Amino acid sequence: MPTTRTTTTTSSTDTTTRSTDTTTSSTTVTGVTSRSGAVLRRAAAVAALTAAGVLVAAGAASAHVTVHPESYTQGATDGVLTFRVPNEDDAVTTTKVQVFLPTDHPVLGVLVSPRDGWTASVKNTRLKTPVKTDDGTITDAVSEITWTGGKIAAGQFEDFDVAFGQLPDDVGRLTFKTLQTYSDGKTVRWIEEAAAGADEPENPAPVLELTTKGADEAAQDGAGAAAPSASAKSSASAAGSASGDDSTARGLGAAGLAVGVLGLAAAAFAVVRGRSAGSRPE
Questions:
Q1: pLDDT of residue 196
Q2: Residue 97 main-chain phi, psi, to 5 deg
Q3: Residues 6+ apart with CB under 8 A from 270
Q4: Residues 115, 150 contacting (CB under 8 angstroms)
Q5: Using CA atoms, how far apart are residues 175 and 279, in angstroms rounded to an integer?
């Protein structure tokens, strides 16, 4: 009888020990799973914030007035300049656009292409130094073009096409200072010029680079082809996004998404590694 009681006590003790081990093991696995979930949530949040930051930067990068194409050959004739105006204000619409053409190096034979919903007015200025051409001496040129009556909504842009007869052949670039007026009366002055080697200013003026004659004949051909392309794109301006047609913005957006994917992959690896560590015996 004493032997029987001893055996019963030992069995009870073994059962209690196994139960305790099982409870400890369960607690350990639960702790690992909880920590892994927290790691995953933190990594996902970081990846999302990083991607969002890159996409915001991409949008900001394209939100200023530009001229297309970006370059022409000096003295180029019979071309088109397209001024792209995005609306960067989420609360109001753009209702007026003024583009100022240089008169010290004038653009000759300017004609404004009609734009649905907008009315264009053109101002001529007498030149201080007349320009001699094959057709005679030019004494005045267009110095300002103003578009009114239309609207550019938030997140959209408008293309304004201007044809020219001849560009100057004695300068390396043309700056077109621009004023953009919103429905609340605010005016953004796109008039700043970047110094050589300096960062782009906050409100840069549209700049057209003029390349040397004969230096690269292909450049002129490319510029001529780019002009009608920009004009064709303008038909979609009522529904387009300013950042949607900007290749740099698309590149930055793709980079942001890639960062997000890498962050999630790292988080998944951390979870698998944590679970593996939790399953190993002490």
A1: 75
A2: -135, 130
A3: 36, 39, 40, 43
A4: yes
A5: 68
Amino acid at 57: A
| 161 in Cβ contact with 145 (< 8 Å) | no
Rounded CA separation 188/257 (Å): 32
Q: Against a cut of 0.70, is the pTM above it?
A: no
SS3 at position 41 = helix
Exposed, middle or buried: residue 96 (CB in 10 Å: 0-12, 13-18, 19+)? middle
- Beta-strand runs (E) in the chain: 66-68, 71-73, 77-86, 94-100, 111-112, 119-133, 136-152, 157-166, 173-175, 177-182, 187-190, 207-211
Residue in the structure block whose two tokens are 């082809």: 225
Task: Please list the residues that pair with 97 across neighbouring strands.
Answer: 147, 180
Helices then strands, each counted (H, E), the chain: 3, 12
Burial (CB < 10 A; 0-12, 13-18, 19+), residue 131, is: middle
For 173-204, how does the pLDDT look when each residue is reduced to its tens digit (9 = 90+)? 999 999 999 999 999 999 999 887 788 899 99
Average pLDDT over every residue of 205-212:
96
